[in-house]
Amino acid sequence: MDIAVDNDQITIELSNLEKILSFHPSFKISVSQITEISNTLLPPIWKEIRAPGIAFPGIKTGTYYTSRGKEFWLLRIKDNPVRIELQNNKFKRLILGIKDHEKWLFTIKELRKKVSDNRK
After folding, report:
1. H-type helices in the chain, by residue range?
2. H or E element: which one contains 85?
């Protein structure tokens, strides 16, 4: 997975394998849609429907419907998670395993702050 920032757009480019496993293309998200970004996961929910996606021991990928809303997961057990809460998007949240997760947490938080300051 590669991430790129262009003005107020974040592009999350999935590898071909990630696209196959998650049954989903890459993402383009406006920074204004991000309400929160964190490296913590929400508590697990027992009731969820995976459609479509794949779950093996150690990997969870695809679209999940939960009582918290529609979620996209692309996370391996060894990955450091990044949780991106969204509004005005078909997904309520993205849970991703991102290399250099601390860098991206900082970058996206700073970008959100910049976009918010420009609106004032």
Report:
1. 16-22, 101-119
2. strand 81-86
